[in-house]
Queue: 4 jobs
Job 1
Amino acid sequence: MTEEAGVDATGKDFDVRRIRDDPRAFEAFYRAHVDVIQNFVARRVNDPYLVADLTADVFLAAIDSAHTFRPGRAAPIAWLFGVARNVVASENRRRARELRSVGRIAGRRLVEPDDLVRLEERIDAEASARELRLAMGRLSEGERAVLELVAVDGLTVSAAAEALRISQVTARVRLHRARQRLRTHLAPAVTLQPWEASS
């Protein structure tokens, strides 16, 4: 429960649609999930300013798409991971097409030095996950998406399936194939032990 907002946004019964029109519900939802989403972004981006920007973008996108949330179909965090994946993918496409815009450079001045240090520490802590992501580049998009959500972000197979809007059977098949392919391609120094426990 976020006491300041008086709203519990951590449970699976929280109706995300409320964040669009209810500032207290949005504040509670943001506070409950900002650290998890910032970690998610930091595992995929190595620029602290961009981590801060994309984390904010995820919550803006969540407000814009809150009407698409279907209670009972997906847990709020699984739905939010789906939004975050879309935001990060969109940024990757944008960066492939063009250099950073002047507006983004100007926006970087809003990050305080203490925030920058904290984000750099978080990025450093996620360095091994980024290295693993490079190895995962050989997987298909579908296999990689399930593996990231389960092995890297800690979702259950069921929650990953919800976030990706696929069946649990499809998610399990993709996860199995991804693990088999990584066993073949990863260097011997990389262990898959933690992932075996995440099924």
Job 2
Amino acid sequence: MKVLSKLIAVSFAASAIFFTTTVKAQTVAANKFTFSLGAETGIPTGVSRLGTTFVLGASGKFQYGVTNSFAVTFAAGGYHFFPKTDPSTGKKYGSYGEIPVKIGVKEFVIPNFYVAAEGGLAWEKLESPHGWAPFHRRDLAGGIGYADKHWDLGVRYEDFYMKDYHSGLVALRLAYGFGL
């Protein structure tokens, strides 16, 4: 059921993006590229909750304005999941990181307020000496936010998943952007 509810949520976000195109919120410059650098903090979800307490990250995002209210995005970054202490041993669980690479869409439904959906892949970096995990995960994200000419403040849910394994985060992103 969890997969079905997440699929419904992503479908709802995508539908909201595509069915609100009649609103003319002119926040994105048509035919222009922008780039933003952001800091992110959040709480883990899924199986990540079992061994981690919170998440810190950073990301870079390219955005191309298709119209004055609709943009396509390319994002990459990294998240560090900080470990909890194992109550049975008194030792900390291992920390790890996720490196996502995503493409997506962003629609400004009213001036300065947007909904966004992204999808891509994420690679897991385990605490030493384990190194890179021998697999990648699919990555789906959806969010809402406020953006002006330079600042972007958004809240989103991101899910890293593979068969029968879901981890992720609910995050707050504060970014500064500029035109290219």
Job 3
Amino acid sequence: MTTHAIERRTAVTEPSSWDADAAVEALYAAHWRRLVRLSVLLVRDVGTAEEVVQDAFVALHGRWRRLRDPDKALAYLRQAVVNRSRSVLRHRGVVDRHAARDRAPEPLPSAEAPALARDRRETVLDAMRALPQRQREVLALRYYLDLSEADIADALGISRGAVKSHASRGSAALRTLLAPLEGDDL
């Protein structure tokens, strides 16, 4: 075992005999990653968790001489990380509440919006019904069921080229049939 490993093991097992620098350095080397993982579980952000843990180590260093039982420094660190993580979460909540309050409220739909939407749907369905059967089938499978050209060709028993042709002709016909509604946000 190397001299560094012996010093490290000794430092981790006998914290009551350390000065603040040696104690924090040994605790940092031995427990930093686990404490960051603990904080990440709470705050769900690695950068913030690292800051929380770093602040906990800085606070421990500043309070080292006032610790009643230096052997419980790791427990102190864990509690500090949990408390500081909670503070971060509380702060986020306050910021989110203020941001939500400052945002403009979503505009309410007009009273006739559902009726207009229903009318638009009916108009689009009527236009679809006016198309030849094959064009209607291709457009319905493409836009309502979100099928690929290959899947549509398989479903209808036609070639992919025929699917493209029917889709193009059907879309052009729908544009013509629905042109009067162009300004109504279909």
Job 4
Amino acid sequence: MRRVEAPGVVIDVHAGTVAGVTGKAETHQPVQGLLAAIDPLSSYALAVPGEHRLFAHVVAGRALIGGREVAAGQTGWSDPVAGAAETVLHLAVPDGDAPARVMVYSGTPLREPVAFGGPFVMNSRTEIAQAYRDFQSGAFGPVPRTARLAYDR
């Protein structure tokens, strides 16, 4: 796992670059993605490109995200900051006995229409129909019956 460690904080970087550590995910758009484990009374100042919109989802515990308390199962959002090259998202667990786990993903807004259909996300219903035809005709290549995930440890 590509990892950043700071006092009381461990960040697994999935995509993009955090504190000089680049995640393994290959993306077609600028994206930053991570999972942070934060101990009580610890904090981290996460640098985020200014043009990114982000969400922070608390997987476990409770955390202060950008100064607002967010509990497990809740998600906070932010919009891009016009003209800023970089912004800082403050992540913290100000008190308590339990650490928090926070998933943060950000990216440049595409500002395109979005259409959903089953497992596909495209720009129009016509593209969704084409994706189904491509999948059913085998154009996606072989699809394993069981997806197996590999983790670096």
